[in-house]
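dude i think i finally got it to work??
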Amino acid sequence: MSAQEEIDLEFLEVEDLLLRTVPGLAEQWRGATPDEVEQLERIAGRPLPRFYRWFLSRMGQSMGPLAYPSQDFSARRVLDCYARKIVAPNPRFLLIGYESDEMMPLHAFYDLDAPARGDATVTARYARGGDDPIDRFETFHEMLSWSSLFRFQFEQMSQKCEGTLYREDADLLSLLAPVLSSLGFTQPLTTGRYCGLYERADAVMICGGTPRENLENVRTFLLGGSNAGVLRRILGEVAKESSLEVEVNTWTPALR
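look at this
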């Protein structure tokens, strides 16, 4: 088995999730060239995270419908930023996504000093550094998976709500998962302690938090479903059975 085949098998559940949730992805994604991958590794000055190699092999040229509106994650754009010295090589931070919004030009970087599960933390920084980086996701594959469920499932639901889960001195998602499982939800992806992805035929729930934020006892959530009654029942069971404190901040559309 080749090294590339081993990488593909390792992240098969990520690939399955993206292909299932993003319409037309298989027909439109395009991988980077081997030379582009080698150039990126030379810039990084160390082996690229295994998931990044998988991403580049599948979407290093085009992310198809999964592409972000103002961020370009193509290998060609990243290499161009280094060639034009928009970004200077840094032994810790590797540019992976160029932000074209000039009002808030926070680009996506890997923090190569924060590896996790064959991947690394994705953080937001200005091209020349400056302020402390803002962590977005513990891993790039969680970021892409979260985005696919948000854009192609949660956003399509008739009723949505946003809120927070809270409990002192607890791994919140380990308390949440068994309750959602008892309600018929499945987890399409093995995630860490900061990201939770849960699906059911009539509902989807995605949870998030970031490392180094000193908010270990809080996770945000987005819950979408067929109607408000379904969402209320789900949240009621979570509050009752998990001992988590559940706070809903907004309903869309607003409840009367």
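The chain has a mean pLDDT of 91.
im so relieved honestly
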